[in-house]
Amino acid sequence: MASLAIARIYQHSFSTHPNFTLAITGGSFNALADCIAQFSQNFVANRKDEDQKPYDVIRTLRFFCFGCMISPFLGRWNTILERRFPLRTLPNSTRVSVRALSKRVACDQIVMAPIGLTAFIMSMGLMEGRDPAQIREKMQDLFAPTILTNWKVWPLAQLVNFRYIPLPYRIPFQSTCGVFWTLYLSIINSKEDEKLDARKQ
C-alpha cells in the first residue's frame, strides 16, 4: 500500500512538474550512492587498519547537484528515443520491434553515455574548484576506463528499461540501478582527487 501511494504521488508530481520531479529523484539517488560509497570506503579502511576519513557532506552535495542537473536532461533524451525509435510500429499491436529496441540501446550507449560521463567528470572538477589543467588530467585518467566499464554494465540495464518501464518511471529505474554505478563513480572520482591533491603538494 505504501509503495502504491508513493507511486501515485510520484506520477502526479511527474505529470505537473516533470523536470523538478526528475531533478529531485536523480539528485536523491546520487546522494544516496555517494553516502554508501563513503561508508564503504571507511569500512574497507577500517578492515585494513588504515585511517578513516570524516564524512564529507560537501562531496555528497556535489553528487546531489549533479543528479539534479543531469536527470531532466536524461528525461528529455528518453522522450527523444521514444519518438525516434517507436517499439510498436503498428496501431494496437503488442509486438515489440527488436530492431527499434536495439537501436534505442545502441544510440543511448554511443551518444548519451560519453556525453553523460564527460558532463560528470567536468562538473565534478568545476564543483571541486579544479583548474582547467587538472580537469583535463582528470578526463584523461578517467574517461577511457570508465566508458569501457559503462559499456559492460549499462546496455543490459537499458534494454530492460526501454522494453518494460513506462516513460515516466525510466529515470527512477535508471537512478535505482545507477546507485551502484554512482557508487563506482564516487570511488574512482575520490581516488583521482587524492592523486591530484598529492601532485599539488
Automatic annotation (TrEMBL):
Keywords (alphabetical) are: Membrane, Transmembrane, Transmembrane helix
Origin: domain of life:
Eukaryota
One GO cellular component term noted in the UniProt record for this chain: membrane
Quote the subcellular location field of this record.
Membrane
Just give the chief location class: membrane
Question: Could you list the residue ranges forming a coiled coil in this record?
Answer: none
Membrane topology note: Multi-pass membrane protein
Q: Which family does it belong to?
A: Belongs to the peroxisomal membrane protein PXMP2/4 family.
**Which protein is depicted?**
Uncharacterized protein
